[in-house]
Design a protein that fits this description.
The complex is a heterodimer of chains A (218) and B (846). Chain A is α+β, with helices and mostly antiparallel strands and 218 residues long. Chain A has five helices and ten strands, in the order βαβββββαββααββα. The chains are: A alpha+beta (218), B mainly alpha (846).
Chain lengths: 218, 846
């Protein structure tokens, strides 16, 4: 509970899913990434530079800005592709949600594993529609572009609010806050998960986990 | 333009200071996470643990207590098995002779069977094995839980020590309010909760009491099947720990419960669309849980019996009077609990009322029983006296068969009889006693007033305040009855339950889903008959019964003087305080109704200090400067001694005004007082409601321990006064209006109507908000106040006509005092709106 959650909703055509999701996820990540930290001996650090890059969409009238890190892009693309596959395979009417969760790790003592405590969750609900003819596609192309523009402004507004962010860590703790696996950029620790509408009800594993937790907390 | 300036300068600086090419253009210093307390994942659990640790007086006490509980469990089981299988009772009862060579004395070890025989007997007995296995599993579960708890509470301990700067040794001497103030203080630097910059007292209470508030509300709206009309016993209440456990299991945390996790209701329950389907699902779940209860019934029953036997036999032997003693029933605790009242607050309140309550119950001795008991006691007493005398003369008498047992039995008999013989010096004054009780328990049905001497009232009070023996009996019966209540009564209510959770759940930012009653919003849940006329916009379904919203609000505001209520509530509180103080000073002639109460309180209960103090105050001796000084001079010295009127002294009792003085930030405290203290006090109180809080919340949050203790003690007295006053007003109002009312009843929900019984229906008769208050001519100030009330009611009425204000009524109120989070919840599913035309709606609070 102790985490902000934001919900975005888009409805679009099947072939636009990729680009729309990339646009939104990259926009969020752009604001949640910093350059690499270079720690000095005396405990201070300097921040490396991050480039940005404009990306034009093929199926949407839209251009977005992303961090110019191919590695990061690859990771996000992979997640989005998986989501799209699942969406296609589900056979349902094309509803699903993908969420980007920023968390921080908390070291705990031996018997317990490290806790991952989310502090911000972005949920993007996707609704895929089928269009009949080219005319509609053309309209949709523009409309989705406009919608995405609104969402991006929305995201920026949320991010501009002065709210909780994990404190800048010392060198030993940097892995608890930032994802340091990438070479050129350093986003906050994040996790991308998705759900297709069919399985929107609580999955078996979460129920089991809750049961065990409940019995312990009795 | 300023923008350009800065940019220009920065460029220049970067050129001069660090030429390009060098790597560290900008050097940062990491803040590091110095504390591990920022951003705690599960705040509900965290606050609950902080509270528990405080209530259990620190880590060591808690640890010891838990360990002993584990040991006790092992002991109970092994001892029972031992008694059943390893003792040769023939030897104990001397039916069989022991062939000892050296002495003829029988020793205890002689009666024990040898180990091999013993274990063989246990092995052969399947039932015993079964019990052993069950209890073994249970014990292991407890052990795992214990270890888990130790780890968790160790963390809380270090939170107390490192973050709150309280050592475990001194923890028992801190009040909860102090602990809470410190938590609020450290939120500013550690950000325990990430949604808000600052926590409020209400947030913490909401989190600790989330589910309890729901239970209180459900009992208040008579949703839970705990009242039954039985063929012979009449109207009775059955609510045991087992039943309560099951309710909580079904609603809150069990598998498939309504709640997704500790803080949020599952989203499908928030929508009205498929309520019927959800109700079906709930009722089948209840059925399964009921069946599980039925299957486990023998195990639980055996456990209950064993547990009761071992925990009560010794006590009953030592002081048999305990069976005749009374205790607050579980139902009573639920019925009497305010919203947002922590366990310790409730218990201290009820304990204060205990003496008066048992006096009240003792008033109703049946004369017939008394005569019989007197005579039985006489005969038993004579036999006992002879036996004791003989024993004293020669103790060999004890060796005669059954002498010891008859002495014990006679003793028990006499104690029981004595409990039926009323105290010789007792006076029958139930009405006054009930007033005193009311001052502590704060709630009572309307029809008790004026009927205190009747048996019906007594019987109903007995539901709240039952015999300990009955309590134990009910607990023993509970495993058998619970499944049937679940299967046959609760299941029928499943639709109402679904509706209840949908209608009365609000989402508060930073807290999660809470019971909307617990917001204590007079406007949403006020009852027009309880002084919130004109302020409330609640339909009958939404009104909390018995003035619970209003009283809870007062209680919370008084116990947490630093809390800053939302605007309407502040208005309500200050208005009420003003009235009470006016009454208190105006009623020196003894005309005001609650003054009667206090003088009587005084005479009845002179042992409780603050009460008699207040009674004195109200009776009007002007010798209060000493008290005033005593409380204030330690903290500030600019208060004039000349202020010795009853009012100002009373004011100084109020924690609010004291906190004012503490900070010295209240201008009128230093101003020369007007000639009419009553008016001044009223005004001052009204002002202080807002001022003190805003000021104090900003300044250092905790004072000396002593002050806070003193404050909390007087707070309870102040609350008593307010409770009495509100009941008095309510009585006058309802009396005045019984003659004239018929109002839109159609607004009520059909589900709510089925719930109320007749008595409640009478009480609930709605009134127009413009209806004038009943004015008693003898009360000075009453006329004035009623007219102002009427005016207020009138204005709101006219405002409410416009759609604009209607919308503000729906406007979220919740995360009070925080900046409005607009656009926080993008309500993503537009079709939700269409589903929501079903009864009220779920308010989204942002």
């Amino acid at each position: 509970m102790n985490c902000r959650s934001e919900v975005l909703e888009v409805s679009l055509e099947g072939r636009q899913v990729d680009e729309a999701l990339l646009a939104l996820l990259h926009t969020i990540l752009l604001h949640r990434s910093t350059g690499k930290f270079h720690y000095k001996k005396e405990g201070t650090y300097s921040i490396g530079t991050v480039g940005t890059q404009d990306i034009d969409c093929d199926f949407i009238d839209f251009t977005f800005v992303r961090v110019s890190s191919d590695e990061l892009d690859r990771v996000i693309r992979k997640a989005v592709a998986e989501f799209k596959d699942a969406l296609g395979n589900s056979g349902s009417d094309g509803m699903g949600q993908i969420s980007l969760e920023f968390y921080q790790k908390k070291k705990s003592r031996w018997p317990f594993s490290d806790e991952c405590i989310p502090w911000e969750v972005w949920t993007i609900k996707v609704n895929v529609v089928n269009l009949a003819n080219e005319q509609e596609r053309q309209i949709c192309r523009e409309k989705v572009g406009e919608k995405l523009g609104e969402k991006v402004i929305n995201i920026v507004e949320v991010i501009n609010r002065h709210e909780y962010l994990p404190k800048m860590p010392t060198q030993s703790e940097v892995d608890n806050v930032f994802d340091t696996s990438l070479k050129d950029v350093q986003p906050y620790l994040y996790k991308i998960t998705y759900q297709i509408t069919d399985s929107l009800g609580t999955s078996v594993s979460t129920t089991m986990r809750r049961l065990i937790k409940d019995t312990l907390a009795l | 333009m300023a923008h350009f300036d800065t940019e220009y300068q920065r460029l220049e600086a970067s050129y001069s200071d660090s030429p390009p090419g060098e790597e560290n253009l900008l050097v940062h210093v990491p803040e590091g996470s110095k504390s591990q307390w920022h951003h705690i994942e599960n705040l509900d659990l965290f606050f609950q643990r902080v509270y528990n640790l405080h209530q259990k007086n620190g880590f060591t006490c808690m640890l010891l207590g838990e360990i002993f509980e584990l040991v006790q469990l092992v002991f109970v089981v092994t001892f029972t098995v031992f008694l059943a299988n390893c003792v040769d009772y023939d030897i104990l009862f001397a039916n069989k002779l022991v062939n000892h060579t050296d002495s003829s004395k029988v020793t205890l070890p002689d009666a024990f069977l040898p180990v091999d025989v013993c274990s063989a007997r246990i092995h052969d007995n399947v039932f015993v094995i079964f019990i052993l296995v069950i209890s073994g599993v249970f014990w292991l579960h407890r052990l795992v839980k214990f270890i888990y708890n130790v780890c968790c509470y160790w963390e809380i301990r270090s939170f107390y020590i490192n973050a709150l700067k309280m050592s475990m040794a001194e923890l028992p001497y801190f009040t909860w309010q102090e602990v809470q103030a410190r938590i609020i203080e450290i939120q500013k630097e550690h950000q325990i909760c990430i949604h808000k910059k600052e926590l409020t007292e209400l947030d913490i209470y909401h989190r600790i009491l989330r589910f309890k508030n729901y239970m209180v509300a459900m009992v208040n709206k008579s949703l839970l099947p705990i009242r039954f009309r039985l063929p012979f016993l009449g109207d009775s209440v059955f609510y045991t720990r087992g039943l309560k456990y099951n309710f909580e299991l079904i609603f809150f945390w069990g598998p498939g419960s309504l709640f997704e996790n500790e803080w949020s209701l599952k989203s499908e329950y928030k929508r009205g669309g498929n309520r019927l389907e959800l109700a079906d699902r709930l009722s089948s779940r209840i059925l399964w849980i009921g069946i599980a209860n039925l299957l486990l019934c023998p195990v639980i029953l055996i456990w209950q019996i064993l547990y009761a036997f071992f925990s009560y036999t010794e006590v009953i032997k030592r002081e048999p009077g305990i069976l005749g003693a009374r205790c607050w029933s579980l139902y009573g605790r639920c019925y009497l609990r305010h919203f947002n009242e922590l366990d310790h607050e409730l218990m201290s309140r009820l304990s204060k009322g205990y003496k008066a309550s048992s006096k009240y119950m003792n008033c109703f001795m049946s004369p017939l029983l008394t005569v019989v008991a007197k005579n039985v006691a006489f005969f038993a007493g004579s036999i006992l006296a002879v036996l004791i005398a003989l024993t004293i003369y020669d103790e060999d008498v004890l060796a005669v068969e059954h002498v010891l047992s008859s002495i014990t039995l006679l003793g028990v008999c006499i104690t029981v009889c004595r409990s039926f013989i009323p105290d010789k010096h007792m006076v029958f004054c139930p009405e006054q006693l009930l007033k005193v009780i009311l001052a502590h328990i704060h709630y009572m049905p309307d029809h008790w007033q004026g009927n205190a001497h009747r048996y019906e009232t007594r019987d109903e009070f007995a539901q709240l305040f039952q015999y300990k023996a009955v309590f134990i009996l009910e607990e023993l019966l509970s495993p058998v009855i619970t499944p049937f209540i679940l299967i046959f009564c609760l299941r029928r209510k499943s639709l109402e339950i679904i509706d209840f959770f949908r209608n009365f759940t609000v989402e508060v930012v930073g807290v999660g889903d809470t019971c909307s009653f617990a917001q204590m919003d007079v406007r949403q849940h006020g009852h027009p008959a309880w002084m919130s006329a004109g302020k409330t916009e609640a339909s009958i379904y939404q009104q909390a019964e018995d003035g619970k919203t209003e009283l809870s609000l007062m209680h919370f505001a008084i116990t947490n003087p630093q809390w800053q209520p939302p605007r309407e509530s502040t208005h309500f509180i200050s208005q009420l305080k003003e009235k009470v103080h006016r009454e208190a000073t105006g009623g020196q002639q003894g005309t005001a109704a609650e003054n009667h109460a206090f003088t009587s309180t005084h005479s009845l209960q002179s042992e409780s200090e603050p009460r008699s103090l207040i009674a004195n105050l109200l009776a009007g001796p002007p010798s209060l400067a000493s008290l005033h000084l005593g409380r204030d001079s330690s903290i500030i010295n600019h208060l004039s001694i000349g202020v010795s009127e009853g009012t100002s002294a009373l004011r100084s009792l109020s924690p609010l005004s004291t906190s004012l003085h503490l900070r010295g930030s209240f201008p009128s405290a230093r101003l020369p007082r007007p000639d009419h203290p009553a008016v001044a006090a009223g005004r001052a109180m009204a002002g202080s409601g807002t001022d003190a809080r805003t000021v104090s919340s900003g300044s250092s949050a905790w004072e000396g321990q002593l002050t806070s203790l003193v404050l909390s003690e007087y707070a309870s007295t102040e609350m008593s006064i307010h409770a009495l006053y509100m009941h008095e007003m309510h009585k006058q109002q309802s009396r005045g209006e019984l003659s004239r009312h018929t109002w839109h009843r159609q607004e009520s929900d059909e589900s709510s109507e089925s719930v109320h019984d007749d008595v409640e229906a009478i009480r609930n008769l709605p009134r127009s908000s413009t209806f004038p208050f009943a004015t008693t001519p003898s009360q000075e100030g009453a006329g004035l106040q009623s007219s102002s009330q009427r005016r207020y009611g009138g204005t709101t009425e006219s405002l409410c006509g416009g759609p604009r204000v209607q919308r503000t009524a729906r406007m979220p109120m919740g995360g009070w005092s925080e900046e409005p989070h607009t656009g926080r919840h993008h309500d993503p599913v537009p079709e939700e709106g269409s589903e929501d035309e079903l009864p009220p709606h779920i308010h989204k609070v942002t």
